[in-house]
Write a structure and sequence with these properties.
- With about 160 residues, the protein is mostly helical.
- Helices cover about 95% and strands about 0% of the residues.
- The chain contains one helix and no strands.
């Protein structure tokens, strides 16, 4: 290598500085491009994450809405069943109110029928007793008459004797 003049050295240094600056600028440009790529990728990832979160939230909302709809339908079914039961209870109450007087009349008729049978039994028993008493009275009267007749016959025999 030949010794360089100071001008040449200065030019050479300037060229080296320019090359270093160009290299530095190209490295900085690459870094900026990478950073902006990372920023773009980061923004895209953040947007994708936000979209996924929004989709998950929408899915959760739809699930909650369907659960609420099911609960409302079950509630309506329960209300309808309760209304049917209340209607059945009311119908039973009305039928009891209607049937109660009829049942009372039927019970009263049964009591009257039993009383009539008892009365007939008493009358029959009294008639049997009266018939027995009449038979006994007739038998007693017949025996008295027979006794009188035998007594009168004795008296008449004794008087003729």
């Amino acid at each position: 290598m030949t010794p360089h003049t100071p001008q040449q050295q200065q030019q050479q240094q300037q060229q080296q500085q320019q090359q270093q600056q160009q290299q530095l600028m190209s490295v900085q440009g690459d870094t900026l491009q990478q950073k902006s790529g990372v920023d773009i990728d980061g923004a895209a990832a953040a947007a994708a994450a936000a979209a996924a979160a929004a989709e998950a939230a929408a899915s959760d909302v739809l699930l909650l809405v369907s659960v609420l709809e099911d609960l409302m339908q079950q509630s309506l079914l329960l209300q309808q069943q309760q209304q049917q039961q209340q209607l059945q209870i009311r119908l039973l109450q009305v039928s009891l109110l209607v049937a109660a007087p009829e049942a009372r009349v039927a019970a009263d008729a049964a009591v009257v029928h039993r009383l009539a049978r008892l009365f007939v039994w008493f009358v029959g028993a009294a008639a049997a007793t009266a018939a027995a008493a009449a038979t006994a009275a007739a038998a007693a009267a017949a025996s008295i008459d027979a006794a009188d007749a035998t007594g009168a016959g004795r008296k008449g025999s004794a008087a003729s004797a």
